[in-house]
Amino acid sequence: MKLLKDLLYGVRLKDVVGHTQTAINNVCYDSREVQENSLFVAIRGTQVDGHDFIEKAVIAGAIAIVCEQMPKNTTAGIQYVVTRNSAMALSAIASNWYENPSQEMTVVGITGTNGKTTVSTLLFHLFSELDGASCGLLSTIDVKIGKESIPATHTTPDALSIQRHMRTMANAGVKYCFMEVSSHALVQCRAAHVDFDAAVFTNITRDHLDYHGDMNSYVKAKKILFDQLKNDAVAIYNDDVKHSSSMIKDCKARTKSYALQFPSDYKTKIMERRFDGMLLSINEQECWSRILGDFNAYNLTAVYAVAVELGKDPLQVLTTMSLLQPVEGRFHSITGKGITAIVDYAHTPDALKNVLKTIEILNDGQGKIITVVGCGGNRDKGKRPIMAEIAASHSDRVILTSDNPRDEDPDVILQDMANGLNSDQESRTIQIIDRRQAIKSAVMLAEPGDVILLAGKGHEKYQEIKSVRLHFDDLEEIHLLIKS
Fold first, then answer.
1. pLDDT at 365
2. Is the dihedral angle over the CA atoms 233, 107, 122, 120 positive or is it negative?
3. Distance between CA atoms of residues 435 and 456, nearest Å
4. Does 2-97 match 332-483 in CATH topology?
5. Is the dihedral of CA 268, 271, 273, 274 positive or negative?
6. Cβ pair 375, 413 in contact under 8 A
7. Is 98 helix (H, G, I), strand (E, B) or coil?
8. Which conformational region is residue 158 in: left (phi greater than 0), alpha (psi within -120 to 50 degrees), or beta?
9. What gap in Å lies between CA 304 and CA 348, rounded to an integer?
10. Does domain 332-483 have CATH number 3.40.190.10?
11. Between 294-309 and 349-363, two packed helices, what is the crossing angle to 10 degrees?
């Protein structure tokens, strides 16, 4: 239980009707979770406006309401707090409710179109190994608190869940928390009151334009993370990619760059590439990694930079990095019947191109490359023809298939993708809606020495069709086919 006035610390108030000495027993933004003496925060979402549920929240027992607009009909005895931005208010309230847990640990936020999960997960394992410290992780795959793991539902949870997880981490003695920070979360202020000690920018390419509208808005969304950094924090950015200078413009924190191409504070060269790993030279110190791909060379460099900037010994960091395993669903390779299969989460044009280029280099023309790929329903339609064109440009055969069609007709999605193909590419492409059958067909087409890429789902263990999630695991499917 906390007093309303204490929960409102840091909230920009426009008006208060009632008094703030009221005792609050629960905080929520979903009217279905309201209990007796709750504080209900009405947030305007993309699909639902919380202001429409204020009366329902009051009937359910809410004693205080935070909103952007006073309801036409108010209820006696209820405290109404008006603010300009309810989402920002919820972020502050959530932090106050859980007693500002992010201030009790070192928090590193990772943002970018691709690489967030890999960098955050590798950092979690690296720091766990370096000094045995208890670490926390908030990622697309799961939430980790030391050795405990909880499946994740969003790349970045809502503000209340973020602070709740961090309070659990702090109480468990977690010293370092590594957190993926999505563009959606930044725009929606979910992490606005997280006390970040470091932030990493991996890259930015086309994605989520169905939500942000255009690339300029997408870039601005990512930049929010760096704009909120404090003076004693560090901003670590990939200097080889577009918009890197935009990210750190006017950033209060000290800045450090990493790159493979341009001179930088952390410079990496790829000395050797093999299907079982690659040899890197990071700031002229060699490190063998079991993690494949030029794109992962960037991710590993970011990991190294974070560790060194947070005071870890460079040689010890490199030694420990050589022991790190690939992240689930990220360039996960499996071999059988002379075939190499790669399962990867690549679901953006840039990610797909990077994975296929890596396969081309490693394959070195020894066998065919067969790509199984789809695009999600109810998402950015503009990337569909681009994804198909990239797949066909870097593969010998392509199978277009379902990848979480959600509420859309899978036939329409595949046709949108096929519209990006020229006649030659189209002749090497087939469409199979059923993903299980698509994977079986890829194996039937493959011969010893060939490589099959299953792109788009990675760690996901479901297919979402008509609002229903059905069990489906690419790794499980391919394992049955080439290992049996």
1. 84
2. negative
3. 11
4. no
5. negative
6. yes
7. coil
8. beta
9. 25
10. no
11. 110
Per-residue DSSP letter, 67: E
Q: Tell me what pLDDT residue 212 has.
A: 45
65-72 contact pairs (CB < 8 A, 24+): 65/39, 65/40, 65/41, 66/11, 66/39, 66/40, 66/41, 66/42, 66/90, 66/93, 67/41, 67/42, 68/42, 68/44, 70/15, 70/17
70 Cα distance to chain centroid: 35
Averages of pLDDT over runs of 10 residues in the chain (484 residues) are: 96 94 96 96 91 96 96 93 97 98 97 92 96 87 88 80 96 96 92 97 71 72 94 97 90 97 96 90 96 93 98 96 90 91 91 92 91 94 95 97 94 97 97 97 96 94 91 95 86
Q: Which CATH number describes the domain made up of 2-97?
A: 3.40.1390.10
Domain 101-321 has CATH 2.40.50.140: no
What are the two backbone dihedrals, phi and then psi, of residue 294, each rounded to the nearest 5 degrees? -60, -40
> Do you know the residue count of the chain?
484
Going edge to edge, which strands form the sheet with 451-455?
332-336, 339-344, 451-455, 369-373, 397-400, 429-431
Rounded Cα distance between 198 and 344, Å, is: 27
Which residue, chain included where needed, has tokens 């607009």? 69
Nearest-angstrom CA–CA distance, 390 and 150: 35
d(CA 363, CA 347): 22
Domain ranges of the chain: 2-97, 101-321, 332-483
| pTM score | 0.86
